[in-house]
Amino acid sequence: MKAIRFVSALFIASILFTSTGLAQTNPAAYSGKRQKRIVIRGAMVVDGSGKPASGPWDIVIENDLITQIVSIDPKAGEGRRPAKGDLDIDATGKYVLPGLINVHAHTQDERAGVPQPVEYCMKMWLACGITTVRDVLATKKTLGWREQTAANTLTGPRIFAYGVFTGNPNPTNAEAVRSRVRELKQAGYDGIKLFGVDRDIMQAMEDEAHKQGMRVAHHVGVEETNAWDDIKFGTTSIEHWYGIPDAAIESGRQSFPSSYNYNNEVDRFRFAGHLWREANWDRLMKVLDGMVDANVAWNPTFDIYEASRDLQRAQTNPAFADYLHPVLEEYFKPNPANHGSYFIGWTSTDEVFWKENYRIWMKAVVEFERRGGTVGVGDDAGFIYQMYGFGLLREMELQQEAGFQPLTVIKHATVNNAKILGQEANLGRVRVGYKADLIVINGNPLENLKVLYPTGTDQVQDGKVVHGGGIEWTIKDGIPFYVPTVSAEIRDMVSKARKSQNRE
User: Fold this and answer.
1) Do 220 and 213 form a contact (C-beta atoms < 8 A)?
2) Whole-number Å distance between alpha carbons of 40 and 91
3) Is 490 in contact with 498 (CB distance < 8 Å)?
4) pLDDT in tens, 493-503
5) In 10 A of CB 410, how many CB atoms?
6) Are 238 and 296 in contact, with CB atoms under 8 Å apart?
7) pLDDT tens per residue, range 225-249
8) Which of 234, 289, 435, 456 is 20 to 30 A from 502, comparing alpha carbons?
9) Considering only CA atoms, which of 414, 403, 420, 391 is closest in space to residue 365?
10) Before 318, cis peptide (omega within 30)?
């Protein structure tokens, strides 16, 4: 009966929509152009809070805000529905989610010194439904791109730029540390990315960052500090997982072979695959409780290390055929000169260790949330066979593999990520008064997260294979981007770059 009522509601919504005659015949003409009023009609809505989907609803966007969410009441008739917008989107049978947020992104216009259009990175994000990114390796260029995307003079998501604390030379005393933090604040960075520092430097840095109102993302690495320092000093989020199992090893340090060289990435990532099994589970629970009590979020980025457990899968992604830019493709190839391109002599034994690593790591992330922790979603794409945007969607799939329900995974990528950014009152929800960051999806992501990919997915209907899915619209800050158009532009960019390389 529930299925019948649902289909009936969608059918009624379709009739009401058709009777208004508001369907747009050329949606591409509206792409990338701000409309004063947009009405999304007849949508099933996943609002980002974690509660179940509901609908159908009409959603009204005025300029850059959600101003109305109206339930379709079949008894009320056409007169109760919102008036026509400058753009009306028929979302009958489709799902609407908040725009996805990527809290571990890298805006890149080159790889290994070879130019790669920044538009490629930006459009890939939009095609995958990402309306906000936290760039955790931001530069002065990033600050410029942040302003351009805000003004819509550069097609792309909203950017939160986190400047890197370390530099050349690195601060070596408290006075220099505090000066460096103030410089980052004055330059206009939204937060700070931290890695590779000693405990006293970290303490002074975090203290000054708090005084300056700057949030801190910490890639702990194998160093003097670990998660206990993040707990003590007030880190906003731990990136990846370094430092968390380290803090739960009884001997205080992972058992490295005598030949180990951290600067040799084959060594670094090979033995990172041994780390989780050395952590004491009871001690680990104390670390997780400490993170929860101190409000330290965890952004695991499962996707970026997945090649370590299944290299062949990573190297043969079917989406590479149309979406992998040749500059990025070259960067992915094993090469000691390129960070993350470490698969030289990678063995089946390495993959076995990493598969066990994932099992324990995933279990720990689920336990962290069960104890009250905030789990985020980021992808670290542009490295290790992960393309921009596609990596975030893969991260969502891997969080489902870890044991989270799709509703919860979506909450991680929207509400939780907004909280990590300190933007939970403005971003991450389908809710009146929030920023108009929405995605309209041709399919049900609660049934199959693969419908989010620009490549779509095959389904069986009436005994036939039908290709469907994909995001139809990504709306950022009230600006609609028609994803089929954006995706076609990406494919054309990739195709032309490959032809150019062949000519040369």
Assistant:
1) no
2) 6
3) no
4) 999 999 998 74
5) 28
6) yes
7) 999 999 999 999 999 998 999 999 9
8) 456
9) 403
10) no
